């Protein structure tokens, strides 16, 4: 399965984007997010960017005020996921221009669309920024 | 674009986002969302809502669910939106539906039709959106409705569609392999697709298929190797490069596939050696992504048929990981080491000090990973050190999940490698004391069995010493508060069985202790049951030995209490005890033989001793017995229950589901020790000392202890054992909720404010310790020697060797730092001038300055990521890609009328990539101004909303 969820959470622990690749109920998601955020936010930057939680391995990375947390299963290459996060941020940055938390909040659906282009069934299927953004830009134009 | 506000969104929406963004606490956020739910419930059902407005409502629903509240009242509107003609609205509808619904939701049936229609659309973006939805919403039952169309789309002219079709098929295969089994040849076909994206996507289903059945795909080894070679040689389009590394994600997936295919297959493995070697040589060890590939290579090397040359390269790479200052790389190094030591066990030795550093690191993730490594390299010479460390760690953590895991590992290692009985008992005591309720109940049985049987040697004195040491240690512990139930059960059983055996402790002393246990744990019926049975044994042994023993007053009152207990089990025990009190010595010796828990109890299944009685009854005209399942009419419960375990009833229908196949429990036992592998042996001839003695003791006239009958699988015995098993199986696991909160508390002490000094300290410490290594490391060396050394005679040599190795290590590390630092500095200074474009992970200038002064290795790596080049490369490719994209779009309808704005926005960044990364600085400023106009500004409550993520 690979990636099991992608979360964006700010420093206050507020969720800014959540995408799950396996179904969890609202309650399960809320509990899981709370636990993970507490664990990751308590860590300092010296420590590993990986945290084990229940059956997940969380790979996280912080950009300014926003934490990107990706839950993966045991088989996944942690360093590669770390770079996947960076690629996602770079892609958003290319689209929004100096992307900030507010961009994601105002354009939640677009951030989701980018993620949809990059990840399907929990697998990273697209890493070319041009390919990721093309459908989104076309949609911008037609609407 | 809309006219109400910026971004085509209404003022209302902007206000909502703003208030959520500025919410100070979760409760404030909840208030906002609850208010929003009320508003939306009213609004969303109004007639004639403009489509654009509806889209906004849908996004607001997404917000509500994202922030943890139920938005099911609006699901139907999201479903409706998927029918819309506008691509943006349709895709938003699909997005919302995939976020809200799982594949089994009732509303899905309303979407399947839309998906079918959209899959046929001649707008490829509509098809793509529908394929995205397929991956998440189509379940086993609805697969047939769309599968034909999805398969046809595998040949779509647009590569993006082909890719998504592959992934849709992949998701069908994950959900229901049988429904797509006839189509899996398509994945092979698409592997040779001339678009790298499609090829890359097929790797995922192929990986799954190969995991299931490796042998059917051996013919693809050459193809995979060839593709990997081409990727590594940069034959793919530049757009797939990530920070100058060619298609790293495809490389990693290919390596994963190769490691499956090459496992235990010399011929296949040999085909891979060259390409893996090449990739390792070429990989860029200064970037995360280069190291990710390197790590994957190591995994592959340790999985395929070993090649000495590659093993050497892998060992070098691991050494570099472990030497690194980055915790991430150390973590990967430890993990890789754990994989490689399976093939070359000696490799761990040269890294012993690095491993110990990781073990003592305050970072829990690293520590845990290192314990995993130690677990893999445990042998009889180092088991004591490792298990001691593991127990200390187990005690220190609060997370039940990992406590359980660590505890069972301790038990496993102790059972496997225990150097002495005494150590084993001590170790088990510690494990039980701190995690008794978390470990598998089987462990408790094993422990009791071990104490009863000894280590299997024919040495009675050793056995009795073992028992004595167990009894002594339990008497010491038993008064401690909060002992786990499972541990108390063991204690009671052992005290009852062996408490007075040695004559060291008097019967009244032991009985007193047992009564204390029963009293102190009055809410635990199982423990009370064990205690009262133990009391009975103590009394019986005493009486059998001819000593006069009067019942202690507290024992008497315990019996009184239990005789009136709500638990019928406890009542029975109490009454049995009472009955036993009245028996004479002879009878007692028979029903409670001393130290007989290991004696075989043979049960006459055919109850032949009753033959006379039956015969007499027949003669008096009694009806012969017909087994229940042979009687006419329906089966009754008991016969159904027997189905699982008894062959004789196989002729009747099975009403129960078949058992889930249980994983084979590895029983890694030293030959000398015979542990039971089953909780309750099914054959009667094996005595199970660990189940409730009272249920075995022949207080029931029907089951004489020493009846010489044969046969196994007695129904009667089985049923009673079931009862026992149930007792053990009662929920002794405590829920994780409480501990996770306490976990949180312990973590919160490291709040954000403390981070900075912390970083500085931990940064300066290792360097100091490196310099004063000779003195400091003595203890570590000792630890290293005990962990890694084999025999003691060899450890001396190794110790010195290790020290020498380490000093070399530290020298090279310093050297490495010297090399790295100037590079970082230049990068930083080169990138610094344009203020918004710093890779700034901190929030303020203060953070940045401390970052450069402390030279955080994690950020060093960040600094080395060369954004400029990547952007330049990507943007230079952009025009022709765009043009091809647009030409397609034109053929697909008038989607695109004005390609200029985008090209215009890309171009400025082309040459001055270091200045702007986005479409343009102007755009960003416009955006900023717009947002400020709306009243969201950096000086408002949450300035973080504005900070650039990429700094």
Automatic annotation (TrEMBL), chain A:
Domain AP complex mu/sigma subunit: 3-142
Residues spanning the signal sequence: none
Keywords in alphabetical order: Membrane, Protein transport, Transport
Pfam families associated with the record: Clat_adaptor_s
Gene Ontology terms: cellular component: cytoplasm; endomembrane system
GO biological process: intracellular protein transport
Family label: Belongs to the adaptor complexes small subunit family.
Protein name, entry field: AP complex subunit sigma
Organism: Deinandra increscens subsp. villosa
TrEMBL record, chain B:
Region described as Disordered: spans on this chain: 727-854, 883-951
Biased composition (Polar residues): 883-917, 936-945
S-adenosyl-L-methionine among keywords: no
Subcellular location: Endomembrane system
Organism: Deinandra increscens subsp. villosa
Any Pfam family matching the protein: Adaptin_N
Subunit-level organization: Adaptor protein complex 4 (AP-4) is a heterotetramer composed of two large adaptins, a medium adaptin and a small adaptin.
GO annotation (BP), single: intracellular protein transport
Keyword Transferase part of the UniProt annotation: no
UniProt-listed SUPFAM superfamilies: ARM repeat
Low complexity: compositionally biased ranges: 734-746, 822-831
GO cellular component, one term: endomembrane system
Domain of life: Eukaryota
Segments forming domain Clathrin/coatomer adaptor adaptin-like N-terminal: 39-582
Annotated transmembrane regions: none
Skewed-composition ranges (Basic and acidic residues): 765-782
Role this protein plays: Subunit of novel type of clathrin- or non-clathrin-associated protein coat involved in targeting proteins from the trans-Golgi network (TGN) to the endosomal-lysosomal system.
Record InterPro entries: Adaptor_Complx_Large_Subunit, AP4_complex_esu, ARM-like, ARM-type_fold, Clathrin/coatomer_adapt-like_N
Family indicated by similarity: Belongs to the adaptor complexes large subunit family.
Keywords linked to the UniProt accession: Golgi apparatus, Membrane, Protein transport, Transport
Protein name (record): AP-4 complex subunit epsilon
């Amino acid at each position: 399965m690979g990636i099991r969820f992608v979360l964006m959470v700010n420093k206050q622990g507020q969720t800014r984007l959540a995408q799950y690749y396996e179904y969890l109920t609202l309650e399960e998601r809320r509990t899981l997010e709370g636990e993970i955020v507490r664990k990751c936010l308590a860590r300092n930057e010296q420590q590993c960017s990986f945290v084990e939680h229940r059956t997940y391995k969380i790979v996280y990375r912080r950009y300014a005020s926003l934490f990107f947390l990706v839950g993966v299963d045991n088989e996944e290459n942690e360093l590669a996921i770390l770079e996947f996060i960076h690629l996602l941020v770079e892609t958003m940055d290319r689209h929004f221009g100096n992307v900030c938390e507010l961009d994601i909040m105002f354009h939640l659906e677009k951030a989701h669309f980018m993620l949809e282009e990059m990840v399907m069934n929990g697998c990273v299927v697209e890493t070319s920024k041009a390919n990721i953004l093309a459908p989104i830009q076309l949609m911008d134009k037609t609407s | 674009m809309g006219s109400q506000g910026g971004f085509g969104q209404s003022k209302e929406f902007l206000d909502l986002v703003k208030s959520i963004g500025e919410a100070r606490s979760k409760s404030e956020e909840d208030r906002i969302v609850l208010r929003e739910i009320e508003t939306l419930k009213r609004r969303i059902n109004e007639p004639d809502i403009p489509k654009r407005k509806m889209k906004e409502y849908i996004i607001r629903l997404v917000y509500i669910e994202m922030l943890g509240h139920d938005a099911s009242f609006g699901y139907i509107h999201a479903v409706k939106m998927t029918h819309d003609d506008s691509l943006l609205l349709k895709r938003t509808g699909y997005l919302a539906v995939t976020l809200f619904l799982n594949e089994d939701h009732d509303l899905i049936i309303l979407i399947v039709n839309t998906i079918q229609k959209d899959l046929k659309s001649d707008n490829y973006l509509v098809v793509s959106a529908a394929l995205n939805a397929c991956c998440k919403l189509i379940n086993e039952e609805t697969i047939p409705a769309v599968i034909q169309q999805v398969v046809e789309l595998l040949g779509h002219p647009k590569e993006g569609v082909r890719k998504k079709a592959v992934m849709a098929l992949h998701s069908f295969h994950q959900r229901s392999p049988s429904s797509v089994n006839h189509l899996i040849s398509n994945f092979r076909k698409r592997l040779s697709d001339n678009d790298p994206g499609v090829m890359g996507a097929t790797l995922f289903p192929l990986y799954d298929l190969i995991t299931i059945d490796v042998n059917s795909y051996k013919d693809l080894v050459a193809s995979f190797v060839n593709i990997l070679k081409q990727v590594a040689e940069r034959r793919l389009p530049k757009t797939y490069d990530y920070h100058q590394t060619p298609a790293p994600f495809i490389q990693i997936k290919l390596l994963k596939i190769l490691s499956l295919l090459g496992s235990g297959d010399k011929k296949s493995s040999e085909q891979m050696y060259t390409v893996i070697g090449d990739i390792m040589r070429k990989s860029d060890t200064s970037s995360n992504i280069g190291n990710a590939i390197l790590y994957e290579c190591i995994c592959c090397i340790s999985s395929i048929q070993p090649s000495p040359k590659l093993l050497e390269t892998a060992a070098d790479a691991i050494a570099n990981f472990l030497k690194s200052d980055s915790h991430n790389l150390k973590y990967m190094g430890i993990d890789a080491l754990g994989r490689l030591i399976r093939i070359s066990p000696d490799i761990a030795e040269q890294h012993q000090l690095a491993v110990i550093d990781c073990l003592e690191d305050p970072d829990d993730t690293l520590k845990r990973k290192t314990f995993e490594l130690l677990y893999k390299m445990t042998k009889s010479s180092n088991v004591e050190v490792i298990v001691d460390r593991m127990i200390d760690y187990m005690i220190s953590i609060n997370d039940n999940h990992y406590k359980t895991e660590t505890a069972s590992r301790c038990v496993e290692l102790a059972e496997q490698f225990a150097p002495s009985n005494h150590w084993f008992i001590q170790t088990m005591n510690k494990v039980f004391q701190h995690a008794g309720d978390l470990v598998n109940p089987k462990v408790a049985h094993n422990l009791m069995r071990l104490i009863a049987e000894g280590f299997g040697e024919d040495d009675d004195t050793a056995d009795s010493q073992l028992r004595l040491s167990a009894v002594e240690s339990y008497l010491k512990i038993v008064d401690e508060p909060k002992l786990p139930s499972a541990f108390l059960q063991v204690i009671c059983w052992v005290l009852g069985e062996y408490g007075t055996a040695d004559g060291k402790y008097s019967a009244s002393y032991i009985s007193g202790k047992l009564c204390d246990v029963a009293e102190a744990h009055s809410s635990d019926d199982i423990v009370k049951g064990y205690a009262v049975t133990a009391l009975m044994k103590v009394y019986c042994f005493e009486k059998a030995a001819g000593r006069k023993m009067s019942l202690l007053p507290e024992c008497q009152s315990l019996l009184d209490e239990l005789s009136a207990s709500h638990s019928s089990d406890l009542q029975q025990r109490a009454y049995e005890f009472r009955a036993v009190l009245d028996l004479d010595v002879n009878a007692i010796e028979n029903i409670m033989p001393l130290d007989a828990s290991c004696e075989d109890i043979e049960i006459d299944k055919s109850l032949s001793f009753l033959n006379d009685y039956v015969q007499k009854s027949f003669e008096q005209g009694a009806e012969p017995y017909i087994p229940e399942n042979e009687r006419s009419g329906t089966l009754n419960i008991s016969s159904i229950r027997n189905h699982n375990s008894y062959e004789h009833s196989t002729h009747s229908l099975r009403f129960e589901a078949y058992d889930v196949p249980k994983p084979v429990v590895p029983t890694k036992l030293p030959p000398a020790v015979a542990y039971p592998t089953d909780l309750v042996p099914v054959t009667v001839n094996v005595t199970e000392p660990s189940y409730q003695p009272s249920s075995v003791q022949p207080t029931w006239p029907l089951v004489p202890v020493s009846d010489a009958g044969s046969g196994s699988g007695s129904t009667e015995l089985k049923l009673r054992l079931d009862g026992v098993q149930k007792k053990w199986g009662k929920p002794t696991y405590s829920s994780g909720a409480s501990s996770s909160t306490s976990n949180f508390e312990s973590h919160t002490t490291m709040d954000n404010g403390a981070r900075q000094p912390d970083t500085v300290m931990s940064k300066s410490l290792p360097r100091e310790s490196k310099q004063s290594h000779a003195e400091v490391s003595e203890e570590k060396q000792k630890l290293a020697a005990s962990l890694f050394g084999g025999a003691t005679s060899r450890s001396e040599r190794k110790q010195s060797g290790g020290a020498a190795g380490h000093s070399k290590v530290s020298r090279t590390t310093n050297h490495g730092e010297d090399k790295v630092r100037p590079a970082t500095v230049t990068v930083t200074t080169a990138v610094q001038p344009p203020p918004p474009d710093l890779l700034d992970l901190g929030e303020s200038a203060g953070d940045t300055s401390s970052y450069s002064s402390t030279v955080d290795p994690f950020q060093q790596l960040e600094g080395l990521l060369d954004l400029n080049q990547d952007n330049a490369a990507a943007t230079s490719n952009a025009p022709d890609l765009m043009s091809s994209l647009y030409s397609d779009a034109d053929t697909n309808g008038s989607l695109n009328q004005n390609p200029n704005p985008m090209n215009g926005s890309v171009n400025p960044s082309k040459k001055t990539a270091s200045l702007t990364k986005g479409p343009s600085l102007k755009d960003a400023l416009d955006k900023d101004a717009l947002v400020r106009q709306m009243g969201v500004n950096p000086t408002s409550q949450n300035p973080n909303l504005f900070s650039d993520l990429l700094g």
